[in-house]
Amino acid sequence: MNENPFFEPSGLAYQLPPFAEIRTEHYLPAFERGMAEQLAEIAAITAEQAEPTFENTVIALERSGELLLRTRLAFENQADADATPELQELQAELSPRFAAHADAILLDQELFARLDALQARSAELGLDAQDARLLERHHVRFVRAGARLAEDERQRLRELNAELASLGTAFRQNVFTDTRARAVVLDTAEELDGLCPDAVAAAAENGKALGHEGKYVLSLKNFSNQTELAALTDRSLRERLLEASLGRAVESNGPLAIKLAGLRAERAALLGYPSYAAYVVADETAGTVEAVDAMLARLVAPAVANAEREAAQLAEAAAEDGLDGIAAHDWAYYSEKVRQRAYELDATVLRPYFELERVLRDGVFFAAGLAYGLSFTERPDLTAYHPDARVWEVVDADGSTLGLFLGDFHARESKSGGAWMNELVQQSELYGRRPVVVNNLNIAKPAPGEPVLLTWDEVRTLFHEFGHALHGLFSAVRYPLFAGTEVPRDFVEFPSQVNEMWMTWPEVLANYARHHETGEPLPAELVERMAAAENFGQGFRTVEYLAAALLDWAWHRVPVGTEIADAEEFEAAALKAAGLAVAAIPPRYRTTYFGHVFSGDGYSAGYYAYIWSEVLDADTAQWFRTNGRPVRESGQAFRDGLLSRGGSRPALDCFRDVLGRDPQIEPLLDRRGLNAA
Length: 677
Fold this sequence. Notes:
Blueprint: H1 24-47, H2 54-63, H3 66-81, H4 85-106, H5 109-120, H6 129-145, H7 151-181, E1 184-186, H8 197-209, E2 216-218, H9 235-246, H10 250-270, H11 276-281, H12 289-319, H13 328-343, H14 347-350, H15 356-372, E3 375-378, E4 390-395, E5 401-410, E6 420-425, E7 436-443, H16 456-473, H17 489-499, H18 506-512, H19 524-532, H20 538-556, H21 567-577, H22 595-598, H23 609-626, H24 631-643, H25 651-659, H26 666-671
Parallel strand pairs: 5-7
Antiparallel strand pairs: 1-2, 3-4, 4-5, 6-7
Helix pairs in contact: 1-2, 1-3, 1-4, 4-7, 5-6, 7-10, 12-13, 12-20, 15-16, 15-18, 16-17, 17-23, 20-21, 24-25
């Protein structure tokens, strides 16, 4: 283990982790040494005889834990992107240990006393704005972690945190396992009637990869309504596919969700809050549960009304096939039929124009050049953590290098579902580090030699996740605590949602939407029909999302001590109370596979963040289109005033710095068809 690649900073470009050298057996020794080193660094701070200063306390705290951080960033990405049974076992073992380690620091009374003393006289310290914010945010972290509690309360908090960490890991791994177990296996291509040829070929390739040679396998995406439902003509197969999706981990994760919600409620009560939602939102841009309630309540009724109008249209189409109304497994299918009829827009006709490499190079990267002056050079000499993952060096407008971007776009058995961005190296002026970020997607891999053709939703996801990547790459802050996406949870989705606008920006769309065989551009009439159809189905999409957001909210508004007998019954009651019990529109995530909120604390009581952030996004997208400036000038203003700031400045202050005013909700209402009219 003296050869452990984590024990010293990486010597590769931008300190990219040396993945060619990293083995599973390196992680545990690196974590154990990293935790021990950080605790020794904390002990040195508290043993300091001199009065606390910004340098000997706050900067020393910020510098602690380097080995632990670089190991954890690599591990957490690999555990999601290329898991093995050994990694999952290690993850389960480590999660309570990480919780205990965090508590050992955040509940250290001597360390908190030094921070508390500094915060009390912060106005006298002569700190600049970023230094003052660093002190204030560290102080808030300790208070919210329970540093002011009595010793018996702190001990109970330690127990809660360890148990919550273990249960969250178990929840995540149950979803991972059952999602794979419930993949739908088919014997013949004929059963997949309605899917385009490349999707059928991908299902065959997936069958090979999963050990079902000669069969066709539809693996489940992490959300409820599987994308194939829009095309499959076999109604019984659609029903089977949706049932497989909706039934994930019911027996294993139902009891875990109840336990997690109860323990979180107890933790919030210990910290002086009436609910876990109140605890979470107090440190977000929303500020109060009342603010979130008001925003969500404003959206529910018009969203349901839109969905009911859509349902009537779909029922008419279904009646032509002899159906009396539509079930949940019919919605996407008849929605696509109505869309094709109303707008003469067939999704299968669009796919040949969205080839992955071209969308990435001539769409995503091109837009980043158009708005921000970036260029990208692939670095095959740098090894990523999996053969599918590729590395690009990012070059700024002035020719200077900015950091590294890794793209890992394909689904595989070892990868978690969904799409996400991770940091592998955090930007920091304190350490002279530049960012290394990775995007993970789950695009089906075709047969060798065949093109990777994307759906419109997959194009959107590619642009969305790259928005997160830009947030990390543009980070220009002094301290790791503020780097990149280290912003409030209900703000973090805002830059990624803004980046989606480039997919339909005329100059960008014309550059990437070309037929993969002929090179012909997407016909102008198709572009016009796509624009006209943009709002079609917004009722469904908004209800689907709001149902998940309010389900999360319901679980985390539960007062401490509440007895919940059955997770499915709780879910049904919560949706009914919210006015979202729409039988034909299941929530985007049901409780038992709602990894955003139960696999960890990331989005717990925070799934509302997507629509909260979309208020900012819709307003900003309108600003880009109407402010009268060239795109490059607007992009630079957005980068300098917001994307580069990370958490070094209050999030909404950054928004006001760019737009010159508070956010307005009207652009969102227009976008989603939710205006009163």
